[in-house]
Amino acid sequence: MRNILLIATIGILFIACKKDKYTTVPQIEFKSIKPNAAYSNVPVNQQQIPVMTITVTDAEGDLGFKSQKDTSYIVVKNLLTGKIDSLILPDIQTSAVKNFKGDISVNLANFLGASNRPRPKTDTLYFEVYLKDFAKNKSNIIRTAAPVYYITP
């Protein structure tokens, strides 16, 4: 009986202390980059460009684009070159509900870039990413766990 009470108490504490995964500030998590290589000498329209996928959670679901009202952005930084750019999220009003969870795919064509090392070379690219919602809440900043290899023959 004593062990059952101890286990029940630990279980209740674990459930009570569990962090809510839906917060006012958006939370993002790295999921994948596919494919993991790009070539500098092949035109963009003739190769598969790496696409990064992240998972987003937000309590209010105030993400996306509302014409002439609000806009939320995803910001990506190439850690090798320092290039930073932001992208407007698409209109997701039909699916952006309270306790929103979804995946966002980002085409990395505009974020690829090489170092100043002599050719031939293969640069290993990592990216930092964060998101801003309609209320201008800035999500956590993540760093991609998997690299993109940018090959310059």
How would you concisely characterize the structure shown here?
With 153 residues, the protein is mainly beta. It contains one helix and twelve strands.
Key structural traits:
Immunoglobulin-like; single chain; 1 helix; three-stranded antiparallel sheet; 12 strands; mainly beta; 153 residues
Describe the protein.
By secondary structure, this protein is mainly β. It has one domain (20-152): Sandwich (Immunoglobulin-like), CATH 2.60.40.10. It is built from one helix and twelve strands. It has one helix at residues 2-17; strands spanning 27-34, 37-39, 51-58, 65-66, 70-71, 73-78, 84-88, 100-107, 121-125, 127-132, 142-143, 148-152. The strands form four sheets. A four-stranded antiparallel sheet has the order 7-6-10-11, with no helix packed on it. The protein has a three-stranded antiparallel sheet with strand order 1-3-8, with no helix packed on it. The longest helix has 16 residues, at 2-17. The chain starts with a helix and ends with a strand. Residues 11-18 have low confidence and may be disordered.
Layout of strands and helices, then pairs:
Blueprint lengths: L1 H16 L9 E8 L2 E3 L11 E8 L6 E2 L3 E2 L1 E6 L5 E5 L11 E8 L13 E5 L1 E6 L9 E2 L4 E5 L1
Parallel strand pairs: 2-12
Antiparallel strand pairs: 1-3, 3-8, 4-5, 6-7, 6-10, 9-12, 10-11
Helical residues, percent: 10-25%
Q: Might you state the CATH topology name?
A: Immunoglobulin-like
Class based on secondary structure composition and strand pairing: mainly beta
Q: Give the name of the CATH superfamily.
A: Immunoglobulins
Q: What's the story with the biggest beta sheet?
A: 4 strands, antiparallel
How many helices? The count is: 1
Percentage of residues in DSSP E strands: 35-45%
Spell the H/E element sequence: HEEEEEEEEEEEE
- Averaging pLDDT over every residue, what do you get? 86
Note poorly predicted spans: 11-18
Number of strands: 12
How far is the first residue's CA from the last residue's CA? 71 Å
Roughly how many Å is the radius of gyration? 20 Å
| CATH architecture classification name | Sandwich
Oligomer: single chain
Which geometry do the CA atoms define? Answer: elongated
The CATH class, by name, is Mainly Beta
Strand order of the largest sheet: 7-6-10-11
Counted up, domains total: 1
